[in-house]
Amino acid sequence: MTPEQILAIAPRVLTQAQREAYFNDGYILLPAIIGDEWVARLRAATEELVERSRKISVSDRIFDLEPDHRPDAPRLRRVSNPVEQHPVFWEYVNKSVLPDAVADLVGPDVKFHHSKLNFKWKQGGEEVKWHYDISFWPHTNYSPLTVGTYIYDCGMEQGPLGVIPQSHRIEPMPTQYDASGKWVGCLSEADVARLDTSRAVYLTGPAGSLTLHNCRTVHGSPRNDSDLGRPLLLYTLTSADAFPYTGNPIKSCHDQAILRGKPAAYAHHDPRPCLMPPDSSRGYTSIFSLQQEESPAAAM
Questions:
Q1: Domain count of the chain?
Q2: How many helices (H) and strands (E) does the chain have?
Q3: What's the predicted TM-score (pTM) here?
Q4: Domain range holding 79?
Q5: What is the pLDDT of residue 283?
Q6: How far apart are CA 255 and CA 24, in angstroms?
Q7: What are 243-268's pLDDT values in tens digits?
Q8: Which of 20, 3, 24 is nearest to 201 (CA)?
Q9: Cα separation of 102 and 236, whole Å?
Q10: How far is CA 70 from the centre of its chain?
């Protein structure tokens, strides 16, 4: 569906002004829209996963660890596929207001692509460099968006998600390969300079806030040097008429599940080109290991 077609449908959760802001700017922030009961359940499930990580000493397909992670002092960067690691995460994306908010932005038929639980651990949680998402998992159109849930309050000190307004409109989209042709998963310094990061908006908010950004929107986040960690629960959802060109790098048993509405009979193809990622069998690792230039062996 096109933005015009989506905006012509009565919204479920968002105001028309919020929907128009999303299409114009490439993102919106919904402060404290998730209730306290969901927040408490998500915190408890997250703590269970952190406890499990104490038994892990090397990053694997589930846990992406910071280099100084220890059993007595866990430091996580990511839990992949939280919807398969604890039932609360799958229940949340089905039964909360989250997929209804997404339906207001992609159309009434909403499909699940993947989930991840990113951390910025206290006292040194790593930055995420400026990048955009769609070339990690290209689709037939640009409806995919990522929804972040702040499980705890997030201020500037905790390294919040930052977005560059209207960067989803850039044509052509900048590469995420370096000058030698190596996939690095972020923009070059020259491309970042042309974007004017002084315009960046940092999406701070209390626990229960949602951040929603389009798959083309350039975003990143600074280090967390505070004494408070910042987990961010992320779901990538799409319109039902968006189909992936490549294998899902964080594939779960729920891949392509319909969360709202019905499956699409036809694919919608956006005429604009989409940068493709490298073959995932040749060292395609997490964005953290890519941007920190760790070897594939260290990241797996």
A1: 1
A2: 9, 12
A3: 0.92
A4: 3-299
A5: 40
A6: 29
A7: 999 989 899 999 999 999 999 999 99
A8: 24
A9: 10
A10: 26
